[in-house]
Design goal:
118 residues, 2 domains, mainly alpha, 47% helix, flat, 4 helices, two-stranded antiparallel sheet, single chain
């Protein structure tokens, strides 16, 4: 029984290790895309072509963390864009239903972020 378990652990390690390595290798690109950085394409290219070097990967990682955000995507909160002219829909933090306006139609509670000023 112990021999089968040992083989399973080794097989799981061989499968998980390349997946983990690939995830760590493309981590700067993932961070840049999720953070909506202004220089996503150059970060991805540096990560893909120079990520195998120590300095290339660290450079891409720092750029993806500390790089400049896109101006148009900088005003995103609770998954709702806060720009004039956009729909004013958010999720109620008390019951989880969509809210239009400043009060939840289901539970009647006031919207927590209703007093934002654009």
């Amino acid at each position: 029984m112990a021999g089968i378990l040992g083989v399973g652990v080794i097989f799981a390690w061989l499968i998980a290790n390349p997946v983990t390595g690939l995830f760590i290798y493309i981590l700067p690109a993932i961070i840049a895309m999720l953070a909506r950085k202004k220089s996503v394409i150059p970060i991805i290219l540096i990560d893909l072509f120079l990520g195998w070097t120590f300095f290339g990967w660290w450079f891409a990682l720092f750029w993806s963390i500390f790089g400049e955000n896109n101006k148009k995507d900088a005003k995103v909160a609770f998954g709702v864009k806060r720009e004039k002219g956009d729909s004013d829909i958010a999720w109620c933090q008390h019951c989880g239903t969509p809210i239009e306006g400043s009060e939840c139609a289901k539970c009647g509670k006031k919207r927590v972020d209703a007093n934002y000023d654009m």
